[in-house]
Automatic annotation (TrEMBL):
Keyword Magnesium: no
Species per Swiss-Prot/TrEMBL record: Micromonospora olivasterospora
Record InterPro entries: RibonucZ/Hydroxyglut_hydro, Rieske_2Fe-2S, Rieske_2Fe-2S_sf, SCP2_Rv3818
A Pfam match: Rieske
GO MF assignments: 2 iron, 2 sulfur cluster binding; metal ion binding; monooxygenase activity; oxidoreductase activity, acting on paired donors, with incorporation or reduction of molecular oxygen
Record key words, sorted: 2Fe-2S, Iron, Iron-sulfur, Metal-binding
Name under which the protein is recorded: UDP-MurNAc hydroxylase
Domain Rieske, residue spans: 454-514
Lineage, opening ranks: Bacteria, Bacillati, Actinomycetota, Actinomycetes, Micromonosporales
Amino acid sequence: MRIDTAAGSILCDPWVNPAYFASWFPFPDNSQLDWETLGQVDYLYVSHLHRDHFDAKHLRDFVSKDATVLLPEFPTSEMEDELRALGFTKFLKAPNEQVVELPGGLKIMIQALTSPTDGPIGDSSLWVEYDGVRLLNQNDARPADLSVFAEFGHVHAHLLQFSGAIWYPMVYELPQAAKTAFGKQKRERQFDRTWRYIDDLKADHVFPIAGPPCFLDDALWQFNDIHGDEGNIFPDQSVFLAEYAKVGGTNGIVLLPGSVAEVTTEGCATTHPVPVAEFFANKTAHLEEMRERKRAIIAAEKASWRHPEVDVLGEMKRRIEPLLDESIYLAKGVGGPVRFDLVGTDDAGGETVESIVVDFPGKEVRPYADEKVRYRFRTERALVEHLLHTGEVDWVNSLFLSCRFSAARIGQYNEFVYAFFKCLSEERLQYAEGWYDEHERAVDAEDITIGDWVVQRRCPHLKADLSRFGIVEGDQLTCQLHGWKFDMASGRCLTSVGHKIRAHRADATATQAG
Ligand code: FES
């Protein structure tokens, strides 16, 4: 979406190229828009790092590097680092939930969500006000409520997700009837959540955005909602309008690529490149045409995945075992082994399966030993080779969202399994561990002893476990994850403003407030 005002333009989440192992494509196809022109903007806003929002290739090739990036206040610097690597140099770090006035009277506010379950450790929404017109691009963020946005006055345009963006339940190895029943429940829950948000904000106009994707690879074609499957979790914008009407909604506006909606305090005038209803009436034909046009792109991507030189077991051990060692909450939360069945082919073209177990209680990665596991994932070996070859730290934002796997689990959904596999870096793991630590111990945060000092366990910066990363020399503590220093006697952070640490001498009874 591009927001144009007299005080400047903001391009939001421009996604064009396929994401997640060439599984997801934007639908309707937006690759034929005039991106040379659309990319000439004053501001860029990327809500989070999921690859259907952060399209590195498109950002690099088409978005003006003179644009100022409106950056959510995320706990790690990954988004800024990635954007800098693409050539962006101007950043406005928006303080969380605070209105920032830009030149010309354009006002923005960004709410960053930072729990390990929000996006790839972070998702966000953008609020914009210009000339008395207010807009909330909630996107696919899931705040507890929308009160922070309502505070600044009536919102005129509310843009939000309504469809599915996950692999559940399609990839699960379940009888078809169960899969349909779970899918139906999920589809209903998605709509209920959307109605709740819409009702919270009571905007004049509601724009269903951020999905669903379409699936153009033959292997995934069945995930498109064109087969009359009531358990399909990817209903499109026309279904949204029909369902919204059933609950009394009359202010929904569907945008196609190239549609323009002019929002004022009085109303909204929208023009479309083609009639919307007619477009969706021919959805299957559009998808089939797209599938033919994108075949070569999918084939080229597939050809890049295999890396037979990668020793998958050895590499998984090397990358994952140190993280298992450090993990307290996530490992405990998973509570059992997780098995990967990697399907390849031998020289004669026959199928091979290598079974590898990530043993959370045992803290090791090893061959499967005929045991009961918590989760089992079956996928192409080439995909995991590719993840290891590229050093991917987030297997949710790559393998799992690709839906190119099947899964079975014993017992309930376990958020810790996916939280762990999105944290395959020291920085992310420490952040997630610290987050759970703080939330499990909100009242009675844990202290540890290092040398002569008793100090809070989690670094005030990004929550590294100081029993592993903290070094005390004299009265000074250094956290080795990013090198921040703290004066223990006063609790003052010597590297950055704020971030006071709670510490006291082991032989003293008085404590410093952290
Ligand atoms: S977590 Fe960054 S310095 Fe401690």
